[in-house]
Amino acid sequence: MQTIDAMGVDAIIVRHASAGVPWQVASWVDASVINAGDGWHEHPTQALLDCYTIRERVSSLAGLRIAIVGDVKHSRVARSDVLAFTALGADVTLVAPPTLLPPSLAGWPVEVSHDVDDVLPKTDVVYLLRMQRERQTEALLPSLREYTARFGLTRERARLLADDALVMHPGPMNRGVEIAAEVADLPRSVITRQVANGVAVRMAVLFLLLGAGRR
User: Is the full-model pTM beyond 0.70?
Assistant: First the structure.
């Protein structure tokens, strides 16, 4: 990293399988460091684009009821979204089987539920997390089919949502697992809009760090 820094770069974008690597890199270099996802820790720019996407549809996150459904334990997106959503005044509920929740939720400003059917009617935004197929080797679930039956946003479950509720997903989606294909394509789904907004939001991050003369 010091060799790269010696080239005179202004920014280094770091995505790494180990938590804490961007922080460590920032201690070694003078360039601005942008965390593009580190292990199970965080994914800050995803949280920014998620907040922006919600704000396109509603005036404020304050008081919104947001359900984050799926593999929270291994999700850096969930961690960053919880911080961002609650900082902006939303009420967040994590919905998952116990095996897909962190060992401790001490300090997390959230509620927890294991019953997605109970949560959906009271939700303004349902945020689905990708079910990583490699988790099957960890024996955290009996099967992906059972996960879909209990926690997937099927066509039937989508009918439980309020008419103006939003459906979100960080991508890539496993259609037919955490979300039904036809639900992903409903007007209430803003999943592809999240992708489009990610370009603008990350441009804004680069501009604030570099274009505005700030380091």
Answer: yes
